[in-house]
């Protein structure tokens, strides 16, 4: 609300007072007014002039001008910018005393009318159905009437503000009368205000209850506020004191000479140690490089190990059925076949690079029953490859060899040390021998024969670790086509070779050139050590003889067996009775011999050259042989003395030949090698591994005794008395 | 005095300008980074030590946490407390000393 032009207001007042003073000039309304006034005493200000009637009646002319005479017109302000006084701009005519934006509406205004209509339709703008609230509203209204003269009472606002208070009271009384008039219970209008207030409640109730009454404009500020105080969570402080970071003190003075001296010192130091520094750096870089490579190597090994495990797992999954057969398959047909058995092929082991080579030797590792070494070379002396391999396979991973050793000529034989399962010795086609340590990787041999004299002149046919020497040196024996048996001792840094025996032919002196005599040698083709008497060994020769020799003396044979007509390929001692051994040869024959008996006990003709023969580790009467026809023959002399109990072709007859054979020491399966570089594992059916049942009266006897007894019984049947000598019973049964 | 000596020795004197660490207990990686920073900034603002010090300080605050203090000058003395492993006292360009330390 803007209060503008106070002058005019003043003038009005003056006029008003004049009217009052004049008294009776007013209309009907004025009479009522005067009636009121009489009962009141007018209070005069102290400084009011006392004027006579004439003075009062004097007319004072006031001229209203549109210009404000009080405004300063020549006001100047010093302008620093221009350096002189400049006239200030004229102030406006408007003087703002109070600014109070309100949202009250005049009851007669259009907007108020609309609001009333709306509230009629909708009800109160604020929902207030509560009676007490209505009552409150009315009391508030009372106050408002006095202050602002709003609401219905605005009608009377033209009476003048000085009457406001009285008008308010009057109005209230009027209102009361109004309500009570409508009420069923009539009440005296002359009751006091307080009494009226008391009864107002009832009256209001009725007022609300009776529709049609003109609704009052409500005050939008009139509302009820409700609040609830909720539980205030108590606050708590938790603090911890941490250890402050460590601090140190340092101080120095920076002066030019300090800087200069420091530089000079450092320079001298550098001059002195410059070279050494350089060297050290180079050395350290070298060292660090070595360290790094070593670390990388270690890491690689770990990785390789992980990959190997993964590979094995994959293989196990791929060959799951074979794996189950390998462990658990027992041919049920064997129960109905008397004296016959069969072989179940399991995995085939091959290596990409040895596909066209021959398997020249198979040996199981004595410590790890699943690991076996396979040598790759060639038996065809016209087609010797210029590389050879020794691969160590495990049945746990048929797809790839665990260790691969490559050589520059064919590997003809190998042996794994019985006490140091990581030591592998190989014999090469060129007469050299080499010892590898599998732990150090398979790149370089630990020992290798060097020089012309420290090697065999011809192909090394078989190689065997010997028992350690008296002073603990590791040594091995080798036999070669050049007719020599060598003993090799692993010295600190070289191989020490001694000749054990030279295989001279008896009566083999031929005429040499210029009338000299040449002693003929027979080429050795295989060697086998006696299992119990470590000094005694058998050597098979290319001319079909078997010599029984001793490491103790090099000139004499303990025994000569005229065994075969062609080269003896392999000899094997019986696992239970070391007096019995078996030999095989290119003359198609397999013969079982007894120690110191010139004639064989058994002779079997297998129809083709026999590459290898081995006694079974589990039975004293079972042995197996492989032939160039591609067949595996398994004999059990206890079951059948004349025929093999199993003959099975493993490889095609025309295309391939079997060369070598090995029994697994622990599980009933064999591995056979062929000429195409493939090693096949075969499971022995139950009939091929019949154990001896102890007789009912002697259940306490163990298998070893029983096996010996079985063999002895068998031998006694076939043994013929040698001419003119008694049966060497004591010798053959010495161990039992 | 130092200038006089330098003048007399004129021919002999070799002016070393490489950064020379007089004292530090920083870890190797941090030290190398700080030296590189100090050298590059001092070369950049070779005529305005104030700006050089300010730049080094601000960069250090960003890289290694706040409250670094840097002094760059040709002659001054100092005695400071610092958080251990956070000081570097470095000579550079033959006549300049840079001290950086952290203390919060």
From TrEMBL, chain A:
Keyword Cytoplasm attributed: yes
**A cellular component term (GO) from this record?**
microtubule
One GO biological process this protein is involved in is: cilium movement
Chain intervals with Acidic residues compositional bias: 141-156, 169-180, 188-201
WD repeats span which residues?
Answer: 561-594
Record keyword Cell inner membrane present? no
What PANTHER family would the database entry show? Answer: DYNEIN AXONEMAL INTERMEDIATE CHAIN 1 (PTHR12442:SF11), DYNEIN INTERMEDIATE CHAIN (PTHR12442)
Protein name as it appears in the record: Dynein intermediate chain 2, ciliary
Automatic annotation (TrEMBL), chain B:
Question: Where is the protein found, in the record's own terms?
Answer: Cytoplasm, Cytoskeleton, Cilium axoneme
Q: Which UniProt keywords apply?
A: Cell projection, Cilium, Cytoplasm, Cytoskeleton, Dynein, Microtubule, Motor protein
The answer to whether UniProt assigns keyword Signal to this entry is no
| InterPro entries in the record | DLC_sf, Dynein_light_chain_typ-1/2
What are the annotated GO cellular component locations? axoneme; dynein complex; microtubule
Summary of subunit composition and partner proteins = Consists of at least two heavy chains and a number of intermediate and light chains.
> Which protein family is it in?
Belongs to the dynein light chain family.
Q: What does this protein do?
A: Force generating protein of respiratory cilia. Produces force towards the minus ends of microtubules. Dynein has ATPase activity.
This one is known as Dynein light chain
